[in-house]
């Protein structure tokens, strides 16, 4: 089985540990970063998907998304991953070119996170004819 890799970017160690645990239990390989300047990680480790917090260590994660969309990584699915409201995330995702968003919530996040990642990565695999 080809294990898919997800890069999770968040300045909260708690959120990184939580998301990593959920994704690894679902069978994914996970890379984490507490910084938004991730182009080197993306080009070297080639994740299949990125989950990007909107505000990371005083920087705006959407700026990083815009930058990545102007590189060789432009086709990589990037989803905003934040506690902002759904309407805010929808607008931010549209503005920065993210493929979508997952809202951090205290209930239901496990299912929503895994369902979204499964859907994105299974769709990508189907498009590639894998």
Description of the structure:
This protein is an alpha/beta fold and 130 residues long. It is built from 5 helices and 7 strands. The chain has helices at residues 13-25, 39-45, 61-68, 86-96, 109-128, and strands at residues 5-9, 29-33, 49-52, 55-56, 59-60, 78-82, 100-103. Strands 2-1-3-6-7 form a 5-stranded parallel sheet, with helices on both faces. Strands 4-5 form a two-stranded antiparallel sheet. Helix 4 (86-96) links the parallel strand 6 (78-82) and strand 7 (100-103). Helix 3 (61-68) packs parallel to helix 4 (86-96).
SSE arrangement:
Elements: E1 5-9, H1 13-25, E2 29-33, H2 39-45, E3 49-52, E4 55-56, E5 59-60, H3 61-68, E6 78-82, H4 86-96, E7 100-103, H5 109-128
Parallel strand pairs: 1-2, 1-3, 3-6, 6-7
Antiparallel strand pairs: 4-5
- Helicity, as a percent range: 40-55%
> Taking strands numbered 1, 2, ... along the chain, how are they ordered across the largest sheet?
2-1-3-6-7
Percentage of β-strand residues: 15-25%
Tell me the distance between the termini: 11 Å
Integer-rounded radius of gyration: 13 Å
Q: How do the helices and strands follow one another from N- to C-terminus?
A: EHEHEEEHEHEH
List low-confidence stretches: none
| General form | globular
| Class based on secondary structure composition and strand pairing | alpha/beta
Care to count the β-strands? 7
Give a short account of the largest sheet: 5 strands, parallel
Rounded mean pLDDT score: 86
Number of helices: 5
């Amino acid at each position: 089985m080809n294990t898919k890799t997800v890069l999770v970017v968040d300045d909260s160690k708690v959120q990184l540990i939580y998301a990593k645990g959920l994704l690894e239990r679902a069978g994914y390989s996970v890379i984490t970063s507490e910084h938004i300047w991730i182009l080197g990680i993306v080009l070297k480790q080639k994740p299949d998907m990125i989950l990007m917090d909107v505000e990371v260590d005083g920087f705006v994660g959407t700026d990083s998304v815009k930058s990545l969309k102007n590189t060789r990584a432009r086709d990589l699915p990037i989803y905003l991953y934040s506690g902002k409201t759904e309407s805010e995330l929808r607008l931010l995702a549209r503005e920065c070119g993210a493929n979508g968003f997952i809202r951090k919530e205290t209930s239901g996040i496990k299912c929503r996170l895994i369902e979204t990642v499964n859907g994105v990565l299974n769709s990508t695999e189907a498009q590639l004819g894998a």
